[in-house]
Design a protein that fits this description.
The N and C termini lie close together (5 Å). The protein has helices spanning 35-59, 74-102, 118-131, 146-174, 180-185, 188-192, 195-226, 234-237; strands at 11-12, 26-31, 239-242. It is mainly alpha-helical and 248 residues long.
Length: 248
């Protein structure tokens, strides 16, 4: 466990009779992720899934539709779903940034990894060795481990900012000069070169985040099975549950 987060006092939880000493298990549970963080996590996951699916079809439209063109509005519905999910994604990100200031210190890990600490980088290397099956036993962390902090910052924090800026730049182009999106983000298109360049960057950003999501799901399930603390259930209940009482 990280030196900045001391191991809490154990809470005994056992489903076995007291006489069965070999079957008795000790579990330590710590409240880590507050309800607003958990709510944002799942809403954000839904928004990303909707944005990726609709964004793919916007970038690669269906080749044909049956019947008269005037009778079909499929791409219109897809674009509407994309724009609605984009607003949810952007507003949720602003809220998440706000909660980093008013929530507990675990809520700030997404925005402020301790990159200035040598000990933090040593633990990043340890986690990399663990994921490569070069460490026999992982460390225990109450919040995100250092490698997860770095990945979240790069892919979610910086990735979200990139997608919001490029996405609303394209949205502002469609909503014409004078709209709020064009006034706030209209500078992005000339900076990138032209509209198609921003489309390409926005599309690549989608795959950038989707690759992270795939790795994130794999690592969360892997760590739930192989690590010394709960992962998936923690983002549902908010409580981190440890599998042993060892300090490290």
């Amino acid at each position: 466990m990280s030196a900045q987060e001391p191991y809490p006092a154990p809470v005994i939880a056992s489903d076995f009779d007291e006489t069965d000493k070999s079957a008795t298990a000790r579990t330590t549970s710590v409240y880590v992720y507050e309800a607003p963080v958990r709510l944002w996590h799942w809403i954000n996951a839904f928004a990303i899934a909707t944005l990726a699916l609709t964004g793919y079809f916007i970038g690669t439209p269906l080749p044909t539709m049956p019947g008269e063109a005037s009778a079909n509005y499929l791409m219109g519905y897809i674009r509407f779903a994309h724009f609605a999910a984009a607003y949810i994604f952007a507003i949720g990100f602003v809220f998440r940034l706000y909660w980093a200031f008013v929530g507990n210190h675990h809520a700030r890990q997404l925005f402020a990894p301790s990159v200035w600490k040598a000990s933090w980088w040593l633990e990043v290397l340890t986690e990399i060795r663990w994921y490569l099956f070069l460490e026999k036993q992982p460390k225990k962390y109450i919040g995100h481990n250092p490698l997860a902090q770095m990945a979240m910052f790069v892919f979610i924090t910086l990735g979200s900012i990139f997608m919001i800026v490029t996405g609303f730049a394209l949205y502002g182009e469609g909503s014409q000069p004078g709209s709020w999106a064009n006034r706030l983000f209209g500078w992005v298109i000339p900076l990138a070169g032209q509209s198609m360049d921003v489309h390409t960057l926005h599309h690549l950003g989608m795959w950038f985040i989707l690759i992270f999501v795939i790795i994130h799901v794999y690592v969360a399930i892997r760590e739930d099975i192989m690590s010394r603390q709960s992962i998936v259930s923690t983002m549902i209940s908010g409580h981190r549950t440890f599998k042993d009482d060892d300090a490290d």
